[in-house]
Amino acid sequence: MFHGQDLNIKCDKIYIGELAVKIHIALVVQEGMKDNLQKLVNDHKAFLSENYIVSTKGTAEYLHEKTELVVTKIVNSGQEGGDIIIANMLLEGDIDVAIFLLNPIRYFPHCQDAYALMRVCNFKNIPLAMNMRTADVMLSSISRES
């Protein structure tokens, strides 16, 4: 299948010569955190644009309007089960990295869905950033390695 070509695995990307398979990154935020995500996306726009982005409907619309980032897969909003859909995608191996910016001040009725997403990341050993600094460090590290 890969006869005569170098096959290297690096940072969840498979390299066949110069061809890199894109990674799948989930971007999810709670209300009140979208401006933070906008800053994060602007800081890492080149890298994020080269990969597949999965997000909830409201976040995807916001990102497209504010940053022009193309979200590859859009799921329901968090209140409509989007966090659970993303947790299922994590379980199925369809997402490689998750960024879920939680609002540290407000409690949301669907916080149990967010907790499920966190537990799945822990169970499947998937990198998860829950605040801006961790997300920045994680994206910087992944983009440097790719």
Structure summary:
The chain has 146 residues and is α/β, with parallel strands linked by helices. Helix content is 44%, strand content 21%.
List its traits.
alpha/beta; Rossmann fold; five-stranded parallel sheet; three-stranded antiparallel sheet; 8 strands
Which class best fits the helix and strand makeup? alpha/beta
Gyration radius over CA? 15 Å
Total number of helices: 6
Main sheet specs:
5 strands, parallel
Q: Note the beta-strand portion.
A: 15-25%
Classified in CATH, the superfamily is Methylglyoxal synthase-like domain
How does this model look, in words?
This protein is of the alpha/beta class and 146 residues long. It has one domain: Rossmann fold (3-Layer(aba) Sandwich), CATH 3.40.50.1380. It contains 6 helices and 8 strands. The strands form 2 sheets. Strands 6-5-4-7-8 form a 5-stranded parallel sheet, sandwiched between helices. It has a 3-stranded antiparallel sheet with strand order 1-2-3, with no helix packed on it. α1 packs across α3 (57-67) and α4 (82-91) packs parallel to α5. The two termini are 23 Å apart. The model is unreliable at 1-17 (pLDDT under 50).
Walk me through the topology.
Elements: E1 7-10, E2 13-16, E3 19-20, E4 24-29, H1 34-43, H2 45-49, E5 52-56, H3 57-67, E6 73-75, H4 82-91, E7 97-101, H5 111-124, E8 128-129, H6 132-145
Parallel strand pairs: 4-5, 4-7, 5-6, 7-8
Antiparallel strand pairs: 1-2, 2-3
Helix pairs in contact: 1-3, 4-5
